[in-house]
């Protein structure tokens, strides 16, 4: 989909009644990669840093071959790195798997700093 501005994208909230809408989340992950949207999407996503359902969806997008090469995977990796560390510890196996990806931008962390707290 095309959105002229944040207000248009925000009208499609990816979470409703505590449940994530995968298709709308996909749009947020794509549009976070664009300068005109990134700050607003970052602010929105920061409120859900401890949300385990979000974490599961982000890892699913990151590992899903249907999204291969999509900006949504770049966005998923970006937000995985910003999830609460306690939550990431619970998802340790998935995080370690993501960190093994040969494509650098699909790795949530671009150095080994995460190993010190994981």
Task: Explain what the structure shows.
The chain has seven helices and two strands; from the N terminus they run αββαααααα. The protein is mainly α and 118 residues long. The termini are far apart.
Q: Helical proportion?
A: 40-55%
Straight-line N-to-C gap: 37 Å
Strand content: under 5%
Count of separate DSSP helical elements: 7
Q: Can you write the helix and strand succession as a string?
A: HEEHHHHHH
Mean pLDDT: 96
Report the principal-axis shape: globular
Strand segment tally:
2
Q: How many strands, which pairing sense, and closed or not: the largest β-sheet?
A: 2 strands, antiparallel
* Strands ordered across the widest β-sheet: 1-2
Radius of gyration equals 14 Å
Q: Regions with pLDDT < 50 over 5+ consecutive residues?
A: none
Based on secondary structure, the structural category is mainly alpha
Structure at a glance:
Helices cover 53% and strands 3% of the residues. It is mainly alpha-helical and 118 residues long.
SSE layout:
Layout (H helix, E strand, L loop, with lengths): L5 H5 L4 E2 L2 E2 L1 H10 L3 H12 L5 H12 L7 H10 L4 H6 L1 H8 L19
Antiparallel strand pairs: 1-2
Helix pairs in contact: 2-5, 4-5
Task: Jot down its keywords.
118 residues; 2 strands; two-stranded antiparallel ribbon; 53% helix; mainly alpha
């Amino acid at each position: 989909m095309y959105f002229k501005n944040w207000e248009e994208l925000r009208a499609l909230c990816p979470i409703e009644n505590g449940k994530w809408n995968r298709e709308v989340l996909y749009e947020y992950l794509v549009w976070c990669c664009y300068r005109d949207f990134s700050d607003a999407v970052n602010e929105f996503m920061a409120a859900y840093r401890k949300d385990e359902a979000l974490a599961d969806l982000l890892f699913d997008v990151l590992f899903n071959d249907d999204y291969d090469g999509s900006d949504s995977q770049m966005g998923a990796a970006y937000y995985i790195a910003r999830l609460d560390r306690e939550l990431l510890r619970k998802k340790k196996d998935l995080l370690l798997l993501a960190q093994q990806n040969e494509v650098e931008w699909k790795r949530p962390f671009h150095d080994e700093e995460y190993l010190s707290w994981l």
